[in-house]
Amino acid sequence: MTHTRYAFVKANWHSDIVDRALDGFLELIPAEQVDVFDVPGAFEMPLLARDLAQTGKYAAVACAAFVVDGGIYRHDFVAQAVVDGLMRVGLDTGVPVLSVSLTPHQYQETDHHNAIYREHFIEKGREAAQAALKITQTRTGLASAA
After folding, report:
1. What does the pLDDT look like over 126-141, one tens digit per residue?
2. Of 59, 56, 55, 44, whose CA–CA distance to 9 is shortest?
3. Alpha carbon of 72 to those of 68, 75, 78: distances in Å?
4. Distance in angstroms (rounded) separating the CA atoms of residues 34 and 54
5. Residue 140 — left, alpha, or beta (φ > 0 → left; ψ -120 to 50 → alpha)?
């Protein structure tokens, strides 16, 4: 029996926080069904998501990043470009692309904030897994009905 496969792309910036999204994702989808890919930062996610979607191997591609205001640029521009890019990949390829990209306005690199966001990414990873499973089920049902 062939199992449905999922791709999980994660940005390396703030990996101690972002990697928790994969932990949450794997709580619902077995690791044997998930191929994991690292990219330098959030901006690189849409390109890799497109490449993965075009392989035809994946029912969905989940992408996780933590985009914070580093004081040099406005993080909301980067976040918007990333989310727009991920949406375009999904629409262009027909493969669902799920965003686990968080862009907090009030983030400080303290133990307190890091702990909050680590926990939040676990929950967001679970939500992405639920979305991946549901959209796969829905699309399978649509294909069967056609």
Report:
1. 999 999 999 999 988 8
2. 44
3. 11, 9, 12
4. 16
5. alpha
Q: What is the pTM of this model?
A: 0.91
Distance CA 11, CA 37 (A): 9
- Which residues are designated catalytic? 74
Going by C-alpha positions, the residue among 100, 141, 89, 107 that lies closest to residue 123 is: 100
Cβ distance 63 to 7 under 8 Å?
Answer: no
Query: E strands along 19-146, which residues?
Result: 34-39, 60-66, 97-102
Model confidence at 106: pLDDT above 50: yes
CA angle 109, 111, 116 (to 5 degrees): 90
Instruction: For 6-23, write each residue's pLDDT tens digit.
Output: 999 999 988 999 999 999
Torsion of CA 140, 85, 14, 18, to 10 degrees: -10
Instruction: Please answer whether residues 125 and 101 qualify as being in contact, where contact means their C-beta atoms are separated by less than 8 angstroms.
Output: no
Q: How many CB atoms lie within 10 A of CB 55?
A: 13
> What residue type is 103 in one-letter code?
T
